[in-house]
Design a protein that fits this description.
One of its GO terms (biological process) is methylation. Helices cover about 30% and strands about 25% of the residues. The protein has about 260 residues and is of the alpha/beta class. It has a domain at about 90-205 and about 225-255: Vaccinia Virus protein VP39 (Rossmann fold, 3-Layer(aba) Sandwich). Strand 4 (about 125-130), helix 8 and strand 5 (about 145) form a beta-alpha-beta unit. Helix 4 (about 55-60) packs parallel to helix 8 (about 130-140).
Amino acid sequence: MTTVSTPVADRASSPSSASSASTPVSSAVSAAPAARPAAAAATTARRRTPWSADLYADALRAGRGPLFLRRPDGWLLPLDIERWCAGPDEADRSVLRQCRGSVLDIGCGPGRMAAELARRGQPALGIDITPAAVERTRAAGATALLASVFDPLPQEGEWGSALLLDGNIGIGGDPPALLARIRELLAPGGRLLAEAAPVGVDERLRARLDNGRGEHGPSFPWARAGRAALRGHAERTGWRTAAQWRFRGRHFLLLDARRRP
């Protein structure tokens, strides 16, 4: 039986909410965000990850794997497609309880978290660079945008919370750059719910998708970070670890964005 450590925020009698966006999420999505400088656009292009490859899209449409991340040395990391395509489980719900204000679900995949927030009446936006993921998220009843976290996004600097789950600390292959970007997106005092790898790892790698049947996609930059590594990256990019917990083998951190000087 797994022992569950309840996060500090769960025991607070009346946790304060971060500021939520004043504009409805759906309205904000329909408005085109302002263009970013050319240098920022180039950075976005470099950090885009080819999850739109057919292997991932096919798995999402089927709702099942097998699908793996393959390292250059041949090591395979199974991707939990079936869990992602199902509804939120108890581990997911332990994360959802910590969301405050409007929520940005980064790398939303098929949208189980954004859809659950929508069902609860909490403003939420899922973003993903894979059209099949955005399609599934919208079909589940949530608002979703085909975009990278490094693209111009609606309501920058206004989100109350952000989700970074299911290994998405690896987006772009540079955790500090990703964490710094997310901090730009949140309102002062906003919070990030991040999932760490279940092992003590801190690596940046080139990976590719592999369906276990001899087919694979192009290589792309990725990263993995366990709890200690994620805490370290967070501290160096202006975050404070407010709570951490484990639920059914998954490891989560609640990070608060320290106020900018």
